[in-house]
Specification:
Number of domains: 2
Number of strands: 3
Oligomer: single chain
CATH class of the largest domain: Alpha Beta
Bound molecules: zinc ion
Radius of gyration: 17 Å
Helix content: 25-40%
Order of helices and strands: EEHEHHHH
Number of helices: 5
Strand order of the largest sheet: 2-1-3
CATH architecture of the largest domain: 3-Layer(aba) Sandwich
Distance between the termini: 46 Å
CATH topology of the largest domain: GIY-YIG endonuclease
Shape: globular
Amino acid sequence: MFYIIGGYNNNTLVYLGTTKQTPNRRINWLKSNGSKLDFTVISTHNTEDDMLTCYTNLTKQYNIKPHKNVKITNDIKMNRLGNKAWCQCCFKRKVNIGYTYCYFCSKKPLLIKFSML
Ligand SMILES: [Zn+2]
């Protein structure tokens, strides 16, 4: 099973996460990393694709920044390919007008350069 976990601050949804683990293990991990939110399982899914579709919809609905480790499916990629609002390297992050790559991806060429010196 695949789970979507919501984190609430004063009854307002402020965090959305996904996990394949037993949800309580994930929640305990989040708490042990310092989160003070109230966590609950929002939905369960049989497939990862179902979960990701639901997750994407929820992040839009609640205007929550998607977790950066979300797996980008081919469908998501094809939707974002050529769309200037999205990083054309990782397709995971939105970019400002005039940029093709997100801050994270634009650092990659520099890292390669330095490692060649
Ligand atoms: Zn990127």
